[in-house]
């Protein structure tokens, strides 16, 4: 039987602490070679800005192979629709049977914040107290929830290109609205950039010593980035996947193309840091940056949790699939 999990099913079950632990294990599995997550092919629709990515992964410990088809459709903003939509298909690795079909929207948001929490735990200064957000949408809310257990937060600063969005976030969370992106960056110990930017919204010249950055928001396109070249050059960059970064990260590919960095500047994966194969932060003054593109293995890890929870709790719809 194949389990169908709708958005409401996912929201009824998904929990950030569990997903954070699962994402951490998944990246460790990738570093140990018991999971695979290749770079996704990007299919661009001729005559359109729309891009479709097949984000694939397989994991021996999870017993799953999965593909999330991500539709990145910028024109949806003008229609009042989400610019990114996705669906996850998971099959059992032992016999190839279709285990589940899962709405990917909430999964993507939660596992993205979970990955930032894993990176922050490994790379941020333990005494970090000020959390900054560039961008104040749904991802900011989920990141705040994910990072509270990781950091002893005294102060939250937020800036958004839309002031009303920043003020709404501040009213619901107790954050302070900053006058500019620069003000947030200069004050932050940990910074999360959460905008669908094409041109940089954050300058490396603003980075204070000891800053940790989670660069999250830029869509998976090689010509989009949130951080300028100087920011990438100044930071010790850790990626979720080298293959994916080389394939679709404008934050990495643009400075690389300019000759500002070499490929070894982003040679470390977060899973390697988790298992101790690569170091975490080396000094209190070091600037660290987690380049978060999102990989299919993170979706697979969340899917495993959801499938198991749904069957325990009797949530979702089971259908018969052709053999």
Could you please describe the fold and organization of this structure?
The structure is a single chain. The chain is α/β, with parallel strands linked by helices and 323 residues long. It has two domains: 2-107 and 297-319, ornithine cyclodeaminase, domain 1 (2-Layer Sandwich), CATH 3.30.1780; 126-294, 3-Layer(aba) Sandwich (Rossmann fold). The chain has helices at 7-13, 16-32, 105-123, 138-147, 163-173, 181-187, 229-234, 242-248, 250-258, 270-274, 296-313, and strands spanning 2-5, 35-36, 42-44, 51-59, 64-72, 84-92, 98-103, 130-134, 155-159, 176-177, 190-193, 212-215, 236-239, 268-269, 288-291, 317-319. The strands form two sheets. Strands 1, 2, 3, 4, 5, 6, 7 and 16 form an eight-stranded mixed beta sheet that branches. The chain has an eight-stranded parallel beta sheet with strand order 10-9-8-11-12-15-13-14, sandwiched between helices. β6 (84-92) and β7 form a beta hairpin. α3 (105-123) packs across α11. The longest helix has 19 residues, at 105-123. The mean pLDDT is 94.
């Amino acid at each position: 039987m194949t389990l169908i999990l709708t958005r409401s099913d996912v929201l009824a079950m998904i929990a950030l602490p569990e997903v954070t632990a699962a994402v951490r294990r998944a990246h460790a599995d990738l570093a140990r070679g018991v999971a695979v997550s290749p770079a996704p092919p990007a299919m661009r629709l001729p005559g359109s800005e729309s891009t479709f990515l097949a984000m694939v992964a397989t994991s021996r410990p999870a017993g799953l192979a999965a593909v999330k088809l991500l539709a990145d459709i910028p024109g949806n903003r003008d229609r009042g629709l989400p610019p990114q939509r996705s669906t996850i298909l998971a099959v059992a690795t032992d016999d190839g049977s279709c285990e589940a079909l899962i709405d990917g929207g909430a999964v993507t948001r939660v596992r993205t914040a979970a990955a930032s929490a894993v990176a922050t735990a490994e790379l941020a200064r333990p005494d970090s107290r000020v959390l900054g957000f560039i961008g104040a949408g749904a991802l900011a809310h989920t990141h705040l929830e994910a990072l509270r257990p990781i950091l002893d937060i005294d102060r939250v600063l937020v800036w958004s290109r839309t002031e009303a969005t920043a003020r709404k976030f501040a009213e619901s969370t107790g954050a302070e609205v900053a006058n500019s992106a620069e003000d947030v960056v200069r004050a932050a110990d940990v910074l999360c950039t959460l905008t669908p930017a094409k041109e940089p919204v954050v300058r490396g010249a603003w980075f204070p010593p000891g800053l940790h950055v989670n660069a999250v928001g830029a869509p998976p396109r090689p010509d989009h980035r949130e951080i300028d070249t100087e920011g990438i050059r100044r930071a010790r960059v850790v990626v979720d996947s080298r293959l994916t970064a080389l394939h679709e990260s404008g934050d990495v590919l643009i400075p690389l193309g300019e000759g500002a960095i070499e490929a070894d500047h982003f040679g470390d994966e977060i899973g390697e840091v988790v298992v101790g194969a690569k170091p975490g932060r080396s000094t209190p003054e070091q600037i660290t940056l987690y380049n978060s593109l999102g990989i299919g293995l993170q979706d697979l890890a969340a899917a495993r949790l959801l499938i198991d929870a749904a069957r325990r709790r009797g949530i979702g719809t089971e259908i018969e699939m052709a053999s």
